[in-house]
Amino acid sequence: MSEQKGHRPLILISNDDGITAPGLRVLVEEMSHLGEVIVVAPDKPQSAMGHAITVTQPLRLKPSHIFKGIKAFECSGTPADCVKLALDKVCDRRPDIMVSGINHGPNYSINVIYSGTMSAAVEAAVDGVQAIGFSLCDYSMEADFEPCRQHVRHITETILKHPLPYGTLLNVNMPKTEKIKGVKVCRQASAKYAENFDERKDPSGNTYYWMTGKFINLESEDNDTDLWAIEHHYVSIVPTKFDLTSNSVIQHLKQLI
Amino acid sequence: MSEQKGHRPLILISNDDGITAPGLRVLVEEMSHLGEVIVVAPDKPQSAMGHAITVTQPLRLKPSHIFKGIKAFECSGTPADCVKLALDKVCDRRPDIMVSGINHGPNYSINVIYSGTMSAAVEAAVDGVQAIGFSLCDYSMEADFEPCRQHVRHITETILKHPLPYGTLLNVNMPKTEKIKGVKVCRQASAKYAENFDERKDPSGNTYYWMTGKFINLESEDNDTDLWAIEHHYVSIVPTKFDLTSNSVIQHLKQLI
Fold it and tell me: A38, A123, A218, B80: which could join B123 in a potential S-S bond, CB 3.0 to 4.6 Å?
């Protein structure tokens, strides 16, 4: 990890499914072709953690040997914690890029705000590191990542060559299909979940609730969204930002307040 | 909570400091002047939970009697869980508005992405409910909320009268000061935290890390940011959205991929 090796890009990897997830292994394999890899990933699944960070508890970091020849650590915190800790305590030079995933399950459309995968990438981007979140639209731990490999590599190589402006990162989703038709640069589709909590009784007769939800597409037939791309077997790439200001509402609001 | 009472606005309230937080009480008091109030708040502090939701665990909901004459529940989940559960299981009509807070501590600038307060408000907005997150820039549980009251009420009344377009909500921060100068509609200031994990040894001699960070303002002297407003003793209002697409990068990226 010395500066002398600086000619190979340093690639920081994390995820939210935990260090043993098959999707992470695929990402490590592909990134190893592109540069020197460091992995700091959660020691347990952290899906739907949003951008949670751990401020009231200490964090643990433990070396992991599950990737042969790769410097890797498992961390007791959230995906965002992993990236913060990696940048401060693990990497002895700035990573050229941070990649997150490959998530088992989609992070397109409104899923981006709940996504632990994307929170890791956002965390890196806020710190000024190029960042990409990769997700495969298949929740299975036995998901087939083979069709993803070339796209993951190509998109990462492109960003290494042509860095994004500060304040932006990529949200990449890949369809569950044997034949990916191509790649589309998209906007985030408007959608929401219609909640429907399952109301149950525990063995003591007390009520508890389990979250279930139905994904509701709020879009018309526009073909420029990530949802459209995925449904039509394309890889979707949404350039994503963390400045949440709605500029269009600023003027309107100034007249009211 | 019958439809007959429908002429009074229904106001759903949550927070991330937990149901016993003084800031929540202030919000409940002020909102009671404006409409019928329902509170569903976390049963313990949930700061920095970002937009975490609970999908792998059941949730509990328990009636609370800490607000006299107010229908209130404490929930075992995150702020976003509270709102989801409130909308599905507690409210028997759609709230006219959802307000979150008043947070003990700032949620301006990049804090918005870590904020449990804002995640509750975002959750409501995604579901199509008008929403505002309120924060006082004072972490103390003994913080003085008196100067905030009139602004909280005025801003909420304004949004009840003039609803925001779908996809937007407000992030309101209030300065810690006896004399608030006024209200500014702002953009989110660019900033980040420079992490500096405190490395310690536990009683068994094993290393652990505790997150600390220094807030770094990345802005020049522009006076249109939330950070500027707060530093100059104004209330900042940032119209906030959850479509994270960076439209300016879409065209650029299409040429590269």
Answer: B80
